[in-house]
Amino acid sequence: MSDKPTLSDMKEERQARRNLADISKQSAASTCRWTRSAPTIPRMLESDSPHPLSLEPVAMARPRRVVRSRPLNPSRPPNLPEIQPLPRWARLNGGDRNAMFLAGAGIAHLDQILRAGADVSRAGDRAVDVSSAGLGTGADISSASSDSVDVSNAGKNFGVEPVFSGALRQRLALTAAAACARLARLREDEAALRDAEHLSGCGGETSPAGRLHRLFRLFAARSIKFDAATLSLAAEYVGAPSAFDAQGIAEALRQTVANANDPLAAAAAASARAMHDLAAVPAIDAEIFALWLADVALAQKLGWNAPVPLLATVIAHPALRRPPNGRRPRPGDRDWSNALAGAYALAAGEAMDLAGALSRQTQKLLDAAPKLRAKDALRVIDMLVADDCVAPARAAKTAGLSDRGARRLFDRLIELDAVHELSGRSSFRLYGL
Question: Is the dihedral of CA 285, 291, 296, 297 positive or negative?
Answer without folding.
Answer: positive
